[in-house]
Amino acid sequence: MDNMFRFDKDTAVVRTTGGDVRGYAYRGMHIFKGIPYAKARRFHKPEPVSWDGVRVSAVYGPVCPVVSEWVPEDDLLTPHRFWPKDENCQNLNVWTPGLDDEKRPVLVWIHGGGHEFGSSIEHVAYDGENMCFYGQAVVVSLNHRLNILGYFDVSDFGEEYEDSANNGTNDLIAALRWIRDNIARFGGDPGNVTLMGQSGGGMKITELLQTPEADGLFHKAVNMSGVFPREITESLKPEGAESGRRIVEAVLKKMRLKDVAALEKAPYEAFAAAWKAVSPALGKKGFYVGGNGPKKNKFYFGDPLEVGFRKETAQIPMVVGSTLGEFFTSFPGEANVKKMTKKEQRAFVSALYGPEALAYEAAFKEAYPERNLAELVTTDFVCRAGILQYVSGRSMMNDCTYSYIFCQDTPVYGGRAPSHCADIPYLFHNTSLVPSSVVPRVTPKLEKEIFDSLMAFARSGDPNTFELPEWHAVKPGALYTMLFDAKTREALNHDLALIPAMARELTPILQKRFFGN
């Protein structure tokens, strides 16, 4: 294998539908960064883009601006990278083992950050080099419009804006069309495209499943921590069903602009500042304010947990999972839950959720016999409750829906259930880039199990490998779940007595105590 780095006028040159691009070669791969897949005017659907000559694509492209810059307080668990921002952010990155006719599986990463934040390179673990190298697959990651650039309904102000509330999704569709039309030139198979997304990225995969224009553009999907029950999302982000007229008129008044055509051309910073100033009051009244996700209309059919899955996407194989701790691992602060006495455990649970939460002790021990009662506090029931509904619904339509929970503790505060994003480095074969994910004598084995399973799924739609215990698809009444940790095993209906009860009884406490609802 040629491990030399090469960057010259004759290396890694590919002709795309928009024009020629030139990347670089390294470790036997060809790598392209920042390739434009579309262009778009504000509030409009994306359009094809083209250029003359050879475009150098060796540096990541700009990422979408955000309304409020977010700076992580603790970057140990999910190391971040920040990058120059520009509204013209429709660009993607490609890692490929060869510019040939091999027709390799294509894996497309859709980043997290809800619908408001994030980028294709925000997490260090998003880097596609190792996935491409060890998996011998073509890997693509992409940027798209977010927040009020991608999800702001101005449809009342002209037919040209009829799907403005879903332009973040429309950008994703444009990227998938680019992949369909160009990826064979990068050694990939346009007939074998697997979407991968975590958190907001997983939510966007579901939105693509519910958008007819995306049909046929992808063939499998991995949704990581991207399902949330409506009881949670509605209470945290109230959205009215009406149009965006109220919020648009409020923004125009604040900015002293006469119409949406003027708002199209206003500086993003001024637009964002005006939206931030007027949206809280409308949001508190339950009115639509936009910026935090797609809007149901004739293009987007809506949340499948509310309206059902479209039959046209029923046979797309999916792996759907979460981490054991998700957002709950922050609740104990710096406490070492592993070393608490039984008395301390009971007091700890009661202090957070009230003494009634002790009623779940038996169900918790049945689901996770290796854990103590205090770890009930660090166990997610929000995302998992949504996933139980999601996979159960899809299993009624197919036999190719698989469920998992990433259970491997992180070496933080004496050992803590894995938090939101903890499984990403394993999926990308990038644990070496995230020191807090490394557990001696465990990580190499677990990383291989997860990565090999992903690659098997990308090739065939079946995540089973020789290293794993048999992984059954979810069936009606049979919730099979692969529990990934030092002793990976499959469980059957292991948390069905626990999660629905916790979600039902503890969600109101969670909302009141931590979100003020």
Summarize the structure.
Helices cover 30% and strands 15% of the residues. The protein is α/β, with parallel strands linked by helices and 517 residues long.
Which class do the helix and strand fractions yield?
A: alpha/beta
Number of helices: 15
**Mean pLDDT across every amino acid position:** 93
Task: Determine Rg (CA atoms, Å).
Answer: 23 Å
Name of the CATH class of the largest domain: Alpha Beta
- Widest β-sheet, arrangement of strands: 3-4-6-8-7-9-10-11-12-13-14
Strand count, sense and barrel status of the largest sheet are: 11 strands, mixed
Named CATH architecture of the largest domain: 3-Layer(aba) Sandwich
Proportion of residues in extended strands: 5-15%
Reported by name, the CATH topology of the largest domain is Rossmann fold
CATH superfamily of the largest domain: Alpha/Beta hydrolase fold, catalytic domain
From the spread of the alpha carbons, the general shape counts as globular
Tell me what you see in this structure:
With 517 residues, the chain is of the alpha/beta class. It has three domains: 13-66 and 82-232 and 299-313, 3-Layer(aba) Sandwich (Rossmann fold); 240-284, no CATH class; 328-417 and 424-515, no CATH class. It contains 15 helices and 14 strands. The protein has helices at 129-135, 147-150, 167-182, 200-209, 230-236, 245-255, 260-265, 268-284, 304-307, 342-353, 361-367, 382-395, 424-427, 443-460, 499-515, and strands at 13-15, 20-22, 24-26, 29-36, 54-56, 91-96, 104-110, 138-142, 188-198, 220-224, 318-323, 401-406, 480-484, 489-492. An eleven-stranded mixed β-sheet has the order 3-4-6-8-7-9-10-11-12-13-14, with helices on both faces. The chain has a three-stranded mixed β-sheet with strand order 1-2-5, with no helix packed on it. A hairpin with a 2-residue loop joins strand 3 (24-26) and strand 4. Residues 235-240 have low confidence and may be disordered.
